[in-house]
Every structure is written in structure tokens, then in C-alpha cells.
Here is the input.
Amino acid sequence: MATTSDIRNGLCIRYNHDIYKIIEFLHVKPGKGPAFVRTKLKSVTTGKVIDNTFSAGHKIDDVRVETHKFQYLYAEGDTYHFMNTEDYNQITLEKSTLDAPGLLKEGEVVTVIINSEDQMPLSVEMPASVILEVTATEPGVKGNTATNATKPATVETGAEVMVPLFINEGDKIKIETEKGTYKERIKE
Here is the structure.
């Protein structure tokens, strides 16, 4: 058993007969009244995100997990196939367990969180950013850069990302996986 002082991003807990991953938390100590922890929990089975508040010192049932590196092989409908980089065993995961399936490129190495008790994969952690090539975008019009203007661009995985006007087809861009936003253009 853990307490609210052990709460951190990525911690998996048992709550309401399901396993949730903490994706955001904030310790709040108001001037009047007891302290509490405001959290955002994501269900590892359904992908649903809920808000919850735990009072300070509340006991939480944490789930023992292991992390393993897996390489993404291919997708088949809503099923994604991965291979363990250590022992080459393959697993399949549903699209709902992935945080950003649209930014997943074949050959990408991700971290899979596995429940130690029953060896069930709980969730997939993407790298902080990925580098993808722009396959389709409208050409930027000169003179439209008075503000931070953006345009939609389709990357090689099929995902759509808003990019600045100077990005053209064939450019490689770095995308922040957590928010799915453009970070920078990669020069080669």
C-alpha cells in the first residue's frame, strides 16, 4: 500500500475495480482546511480519463509494474504488433492502450508497462518526441506571416499536425508526442 505522498506521473494504481495510470497530479495545501492531491487518472483498459481528488495521507493500492523496451512492427486494423528487443517475443495491443497511435512509425522503440502479477501489458509510453517526414501540405503563401500562422500537414504515419507556413512536403519535423504538436524542423 502506498499513500498520496508516493503519487507521481506514470504510477499505476487500482481504483474503482480498474487499473488507472496517473497522468497528472497536483499537491494542494490550502490555507484553511486539510491538504489534498488533485489527480488525472487514465484507465489502462478503456483509455477513459477521469479527475479525482485524494485527501492527504489517503492509502492508495499501487500496482507493481515492469517496463520493457518493445519495437513497433505493424498495425492490423485496431491491433498493433510489438516485439520485445531483449528476447524477441511478440505481443499485440489494442489501439486504446496507446497514447498517440497516429505518431507511431514502424521500427520505433517504445516502453511497454507490464503488470508484474499477471504479465498483462497495461500501457505504452512513447518517446518524448518523434521525427517524421511531411508527406502532404499546402504550400505557404509569402506575406501571410504577420502572426504565428499555421497550416495542417499530413506526416508519413497518416497523422495530421499543425505546422508553421514555411514547412514543405519532404521536410522532416520533430513532433512532441504528449500533445501531438510541432516542435521544430530537422535540417539534414
Q: What stands out?
A: Residues 45 and 110 are 19 Å apart (CA to CA). The mean pLDDT is 85. The two ends are 50 Å apart (CA to CA). The longest strand covers residues 65-76.
